[in-house]
From TrEMBL:
This is MOSC domain-containing protein YiiM. PROSITE patterns: MOSC. GO terms for molecular function: catalytic activity; molybdenum ion binding; pyridoxal phosphate binding. It comes from the Bacteria. PANTHER family: METAL-SULFUR CLUSTER BIOSYNTHESIS PROTEINS YUAD-RELATED, MOSC DOMAIN-CONTAINING PROTEIN. InterPro entries: MoCF_Sase_C (IPR005302), MOSC_domain (IPR052716), Pyrv_Knase-like_insert_dom_sf (IPR011037). Residues 15-169 form the MOSC domain.
Length: 181
């Protein structure tokens, strides 16, 4: 596997679509990104809180591969790190191909476990008209393909910054493909 790195880190205290880039973010075990609106043991995503506020928060950290931004740029969409609401922007690791339960070591100390795929909603088209079709499509078999990153929970906390390395540890077989969370 090529050298995988963090290219940007982002957080926001408010529930807004995009998150401003930071020089560092701190992950807190079992909670998420310190100071971020999605921090918590139970679900913080507003539509999910409305359904059931006691659900476990499987979306503590949102990761997107910067290769998606390259693809979107080629399709005519200017999208930068943090614009799609992710906390961690990566390069050099195929996040979407990893199985559920993959552990990612981020920087020196932090470890997150991938819980599933982000399921982008219509808010993405409010950000850029037509963008939803670029990040959710169908494969040759007609199955839905979600490309807007993965969600994770924090197993071990730590401080993250751009340039930090990423290493992946796959779970035991059999691997379960990522599903939306």
């Amino acid at each position: 596997m090529s050298h995988a790195t963090i290219t940007a880190v982002s957080s926001d205290t408010d529930h807004r679509f995009s998150k401003p880039n930071r020089t560092t973010v701190r992950l807190l075990a079992g909670l998420g990104v310190e100071g971020d609106a999605h921090l918590g043991v139970t679900v913080q995503h507003l539509s999910r809180v409305a359904q059931d506020p006691t659900q476990p928060n499987l979306r503590q950290v949102h990761l997107i591969h910067s290769e998606l931004f390259d693809e979107l740029r080629e399709a005519g969409y200017a999208v930068a790190p943090g614009d799609l609401g992710e906390n961690v922007t990566t390069r050099g690791i195929d996040l979407l191909a990893l199985p559920t339960g993959t552990r990612l070591r981020l920087g020196a100390d932090a470890v997150v476990e991938i819980t599933g795929l982000r399921n982008p909603c219509l808010q993405i088209d409010r950000f850029r008209t037509g963008l939803l079709k670029q990040v959710v499509g169908r494969d040759a078999a007609g199955d839905v393909v979600r490309k807007a990153g993965v969600m994770a929970v924090v197993l071990s906390g730590g401080t993250l910054r751009p340039g930090d390395p990423i290493t992946a540890e796959l779970p035991a077989l059999p691997h379960r493909p990522l599903e939306r969370v």
